[in-house]
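User: tokens in, sequence out, please.
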């Protein structure tokens, strides 16, 4: 069977249109979560955020955020002497915005806090953001953990 050039061009364009329509339909079905809802406002206050990160970087003892498989909990250890620190602990899930959760920072006299792993903190990659204040000085640290 011989196909003339007009029929070949029509088949080519038809296949091209089908491929384009398929790509458009598939791309609209993907969910697109923003990292932050109010990123314009966050950008305006970036200098204070940078200062918080710098304050945390110059601490002599860094904040340890670790996942313990045996205890099935996440442990946060603040530097010694920061047992009266107040702040917020945010668990950010890059793959699903609905799983993001936050906790108030409530450390004991040793500067430690334990968070049990439950239904909200499911296995996978998490970015743990710790934003705290101690004696009028603001700090921020971000760590990635895999549960």
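Assistant: Sequence out:
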């Amino acid at each position: 069977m011989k196909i003339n050039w007009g029929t070949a061009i029509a088949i080519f364009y038809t296949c091209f249109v089908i491929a384009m329509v398929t790509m458009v339909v598939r791309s609209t079905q993907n969910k697109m979560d923003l990292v932050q809802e109010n990123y314009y406002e966050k950008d305006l206050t970036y200098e204070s955020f940078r200062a918080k990160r710098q304050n945390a970087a110059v601490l002599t003892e860094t904040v340890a955020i670790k996942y313990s498989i045996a205890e099935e909990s996440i442990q946060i250890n603040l530097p010694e002497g920061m047992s009266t620190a107040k702040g917020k602990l945010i668990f950010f899930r890059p793959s699903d915005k609905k799983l993001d959760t936050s906790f108030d920072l409530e450390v004991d006299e040793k500067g430690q806090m334990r968070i049990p792993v439950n239904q909200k903190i499911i296995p996978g990659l998490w970015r743990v953001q710790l934003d705290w204040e101690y004696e009028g000085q603001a700090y921020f640290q971000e760590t990635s953990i895999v549960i």
